[in-house]
């Protein structure tokens, strides 16, 4: 009798369909039954088909990785490699810094609790913020008991929890409350880093010294203050660095705090049994890749150090060793305006094929982007159109200018031009994102420096450059993947930790990167350790004629811009992400640019919050 179809594929697909927020606080430990219900409920949808395709793709990539592993291990001197890695570990240990008290604060069920302030009858009830036909932004802890959570389609949440109440979103309120809590946090560390509308990092070393307070008492006091002044609860993690503090803030959620001892052995044993999935930056895809070589916990990283060393380019040995040791950045600083890399807006809607209707959405997006750019004082030189087909596949097309643009008419006409190259399409999301920004508020631009800037003010005589090469596939709407904040002061939002879900290589959350941040509130590449890049190297150079394609996929929709063969195409490696691609010089340069502003692409992800539309501006 043939074996039942309970293959790894099936298991991994079920896990994949469970979405990215399976590690959210308040969920039941065993999610097996819930995951089955989600998988059953998703069946038959285009979303399901898309996830299945991606899962299959990943399975193939893993097979490739495992084959390579076999080849590499066959001739390797494992004890020697292990000794080398042990030296690296000793070196990392020598630089461990336990002197700074870092705190990660994260409001509990933020949107939900704000809603509860305004509607106390919701207290103790299972409710989600979002729509039955859209995606939940969050769920009350009561609802989480049933498996309902952020990023989950409303109808699935309702299946899991038939009594679930749906509550509308009120971004203005979240933003107001966010201002209040951030003002409180700033009193404990004026240089705090707001990592989202409801979370942030603080260095309270100085405050504790000056007020003769223990870290524990200081955080207790701060949390009580938040509670007193807002009636909202916040959880906190206290640790010697940002990664640990973030992991710890989740330990005693909701309304709790966790203090990790500032001791090397305590930290290493804390990390030892911790699931790799708890590490900010490791989501579903990388979890699966790591598991494929035997790594489930941070302790396993040490066991498989030789394999990881041999496969450094896939897995990012430095990053994983630091993770295993619980070593990360402890530098906390406020966001610098000049570090911003992009600004964008998007809309999600029920699938549309009508040109007029789609262009109307695009016009709204352009208007919103113009308004945001003007309000916050930015202009830009590269505009990227993002669109998601009704099959959930995501593509982007970009066009560069040699003048600064910010006006709606420019934004709309460029977006339209790019879109018309792809026509006809049936879409469920459309977005515009501006990169290569110029800070209109920067004083230095008023001075001599502007004469040296690469692109001056509008120079209509010059040629505009069209870059229509990037196909970025991102995850579907079940993902919590979303844009990072860009203008923290004005918009609510949240931090994204599922970076690999964009179908690109993993990226360390900006807020965990060492030292100076490099792209404002947007996602930034890590500077402290080479992040794992499992996905970027696993495909052989495509023989496709696309100058740059991040994800060559079989697709019913063949973007036309990708079809034209180019001269001078060769196999190149991107110096930033290491991706191998078939392209020419200009394609490579454009990819490098794109890669540098990859945060922008990740930011551009958004899930629909209601069936009509949604402003993609959670920051
Ligand atoms: P989170 O802090 O991730 O979640 P939370 O505050 O609701 O719950 P927890 O107690 O686990 O911290 O996100 C903050 C807010 O950001 C959240 O209330 C709603 C919004 N959000 C989304 O809109 N979509 C998402 O996928 C996530 C994760 C959050
Ligand atoms: Mg929160």
UniProtKB/TrEMBL annotation:
Alphabetized UniProt keyword annotations: DNA damage, DNA repair, DNA replication, DNA-directed DNA polymerase, Magnesium, Metal-binding, Nucleotidyltransferase, Transferase
Stretches with biased composition (Polar residues): 535-553
One Gene Ontology molecular-function label: DNA-directed DNA polymerase activity
Region feature Disordered, mapped onto this chain: 451-496, 512-565
This enzyme's EC code(s): 2.7.7.7
Source taxon at top rank: Eukaryota
GO biological-process terms attached to the record: DNA repair; DNA replication; error-free translesion synthesis; error-prone translesion synthesis
Main EC class the enzyme belongs to: transferase
NCBIfam families assigned: PRK02406.1
Family in the record: Belongs to the DNA polymerase type-Y family.
Name the UniProt record assigns to this protein: DNA polymerase kappa
């Amino acid at each position: 009798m043939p074996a039942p179809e309970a293959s790894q594929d099936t298991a991994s697909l079920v896990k994949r369909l469970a979405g990215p927020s399976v590690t959210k606080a308040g969920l039941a430990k065993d999610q097996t039954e819930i995951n089955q219900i989600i998988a059953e409920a998703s069946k038959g949808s285009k979303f399901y088909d898309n996830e299945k395709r991606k899962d299959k793709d990943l399975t193939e990539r893993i097979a490739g990785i495992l084959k390579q592993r076999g080849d590499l291990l066959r001739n390797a001197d494992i004890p020697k490699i292990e000794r080398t890695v042990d030296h690296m570990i000793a070196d990392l240990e020598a630089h461990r810094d336990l002197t700074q008290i870092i705190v990660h604060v994260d409001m509990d069920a933020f949107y939900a609790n704000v809603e509860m302030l305004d509607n106390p009858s919701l207290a103790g009830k299972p409710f989600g913020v979002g729509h039955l036909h859209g995606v939940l932004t969050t769920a009350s802890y009561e609802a989480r008991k049933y498996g309902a959570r952020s990023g989950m389609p409303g109808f699935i949440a309702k299946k899991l929890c038939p009594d679930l109440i749906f509550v509308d979103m009120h971004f203005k309120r979240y933003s107001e409350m966010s201002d209040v809590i951030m003002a409180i946090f700033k009193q404990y560390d004026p240089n705090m880093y707001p990592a989202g509308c409801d979370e942030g990092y603080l260095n309270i070393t100085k405050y504790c010294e000056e007020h003769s307070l223990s870290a524990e008492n200081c955080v207790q006091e701060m949390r009580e203050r938040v509670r007193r002044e807002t009636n909202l609860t916040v959880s906190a993690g206290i640790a010697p660095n940002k990664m640990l503090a973030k992991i710890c803030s989740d330990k005693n959620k909701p309304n709790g705090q966790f203090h990790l001892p500032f001791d090397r052995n305590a930290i290493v044993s804390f990390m030892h049994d911790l699931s790799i999935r708890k590490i900010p930056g490791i989501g579903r895809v990388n979890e699966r890749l790591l598991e494929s070589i035997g790594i489930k916990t941070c302790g396993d990283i040490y066991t498989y150090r030789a394999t990881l060393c041999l496969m450094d380019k896939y897995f990012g040995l430095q990053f994983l060793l630091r993770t295993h040791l619980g070593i990360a950045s402890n530098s906390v600083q406020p966001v610098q305006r000049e570090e911003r890399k992009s600004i964008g807006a998007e809309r999600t809607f029920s699938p549309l094929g009508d040109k007029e209707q789609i262009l109307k959405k695009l016009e709204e997006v352009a208007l919103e982007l113009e308004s945001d750019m003007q309000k916050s004082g930015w202009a830009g030189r590269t505009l990227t159109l993002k669109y998601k087909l009704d099959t959930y596949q995501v593509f982007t097309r970009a066009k560069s200018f040699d003048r600064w643009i910010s006006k709606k008419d420019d934004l709309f006409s460029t977006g339209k031009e790019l879109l018309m190259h792809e026509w006809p399409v049936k879409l469920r999301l459309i977005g515009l994102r501006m990169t290569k920004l110029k800070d209109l508020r920067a004083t230095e631009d008023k001075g001599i420096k502007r004469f040296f800037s690469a692109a001056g003010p509008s120079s209509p005589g010059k040629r505009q450059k069209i870059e229509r090469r990037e196909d970025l596939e991102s995850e579907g709407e079940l993902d919590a993947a979303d844009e990072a904040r860009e203008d923290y002061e004005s918009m609510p939002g949240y931090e994204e930790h599922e970076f690999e879900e964009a179908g690109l290589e993993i990226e360390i959350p900006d807020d965990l990167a060492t030292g100076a941040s490099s792209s404002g509130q947007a996602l930034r590449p890590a500077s402290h350790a080479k992040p794992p890049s499992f996905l970027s190297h696993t495909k052989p150079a495509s023989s496709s004629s696309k100058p740059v394609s991040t994800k060559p996929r079989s697709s019913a929709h063949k973007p036309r811009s990708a079809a034209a063969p180019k001269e001078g195409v060769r196999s190149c490696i991107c110096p930033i992400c290491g991706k191998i691609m078939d392209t020419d010089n200009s394609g490579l340069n454009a990819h490098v640019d794109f890669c540098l502003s990859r945060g922008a692409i990740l930011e551009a992800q958004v899930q629909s919050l209601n069936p009509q539309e949604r402003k993609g501006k959670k920051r």
